[in-house]
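Hi! If you just cloned this repository, the fastest way to understand the data is to look at a raw example. We've pasted two of them here, unedited. The first protein comes first, obviously.
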Amino acid sequence: MRIRRVLVAAALAGGLSLAIAQPAFAVTTTQVQWDLAGMAYLSFTDIDGISGPHTTAAVEAFQTDRCLDNDGIVGAETSAELSSQVIKIQQVVGAGADGMYGQNTENAVKSWQGAHGLTQNGQADAATMTAMNIQRVKDCTPPPATELGAAIVQIAQTENADTAHNREHGGYNCNYYTTALGLAGTGATCTNGWKTQAWCADFGKWVWIQAGAATSGINSLYNSFETYGKNHGTWHTSNPQPGDAIVFNYGHVGLVVSATTSNVTYISGNTSNPATGNDDAVLQKTISRSTSSIVGYASPVAK
């Protein structure tokens, strides 16, 4: 199990505040194990402060139950979800709601279990959380695609199959989408009159425009989609939805077609083409959602 530098800054009665840049308390392996044992993903005897496969498996089980990417890494989202669940338990049993399972919370849970006819093991296991009316396992069924998201997927799939548009013609990086957007490109000459430049972002922007999404602020840089998502409050790092832009740390962006709890399928332009060995096509690919190159997702906003 790898634990990233994240943290629980303060827990309030009803919610959790996170501070990542300047954490007040570092999330240690021991605390993660306490939280997992407190919810019966581990036993209390497993709390040893040592990362290992048993703890990683427990993290993955918790992530699966909470509809998070089950990569075994306690990053910001997993840390926040652990703390949020612990706070709910602490609030029910009357322990200090600090989001960190410990001896005081264990004792409070034991007392609560005894008062409610449950086995007094100090763990908020499945039966105890049910009695507490706390949701342990989320429904991970993805919501139906929005009308805008469905339109984006349909257009992207149409382009993927359109041989007049779905690959470069006329020279290196000469592509339909940069041309259709009316951009100048690099100024190099394409034999068919198209414009030339790296074009994965141009493909994504063009499809979003055709579907009716607002695209102000998106330019030909892949990370302009991340900026767009953050500016519009739609940036997220889990639960990709159809029509979302998927941003990669190697300088690439595509459009989400569909996702399961494990994989995400996307279509992107200027993509590695097995037929030629070049980054010269619109293609659809399916990858693991835990792929480390995925930075996150930006959902489109309708005009």
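Ok, and the second one:
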Amino acid sequence: MHAISSAVRYALLAGVGFLMLYPLIWLIGASFKTNSEIFANPGFIPSEPTLNGYIDGWRTSTPYTFATFFWNTFLIILPKTIGTAISCAAVAYGFARFEFPGKRILFATLIATLLLPNVVTRIPQYLLFRDLGWLDSFLPLWVPSAFAGDAFFVFMLIQFLRAIPRDMEEAARVDGANTLQTLIYIVVPMLAPALISVCLFQFIWTMNDFLGPLIYLSSVDKYPISLALKLSIDTTEAFQWNRILAMSVLALVPALTVFFLAQKYFIEGISTGGVKG
């Protein structure tokens, strides 16, 4: 009976897992089909596999190949992720470990920003960056993250820090370490799982961000992947879906790779509320 119960349980889990993964499986299979077969064959296994979707999609309809758009995405993600990790860790450390005038008001303001939809701040931010002359550059995408503009990450690190005992920090201060040294050499190593989770979230969200680059970037040579995929879709003419699906598969590869490489630390950072004794 135990063996039958286990078999049924695993069969149900496998079935549910297949249903959840089927859109991704179909996407990969359809990327190897011709454009006509995508509509003629609803299954995910191509009858005559071809790489034309990847070859033609990589060339794009612009003077640039998809490598340019991958590089632009990297130029946006790397500074944004690093800036988020550094600024959010510093701000969270200040809120979690220090008492200063107006702390409760500032923390309440921080939490209040979590309730604001991003669309509410789009126009004021656009006007600010326009007056600074930053339009059609990566600065509007970098700078807010460098100043802890993502309140969710700050709150997440604050909650993680509150569960960490202060014994090691106090011992470091007794040994003569200043605040910055304590943060870098004591707090950051203990925050590593949470920081990895923050970086992973930021990486995936930035890869999927479409509205931000659409608002601030106007030159095609600066477009990230999200906007480059939109270039392949022309509403006035027939377009090749196999090219779009092929490039969508390639766009998923970096996020999936980073997630599986950091999966252990990501789960630990999400589930752990303190340090192990």
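That's it. A detail worth noticing about the second one: The first helix runs from residue 2 to 30.
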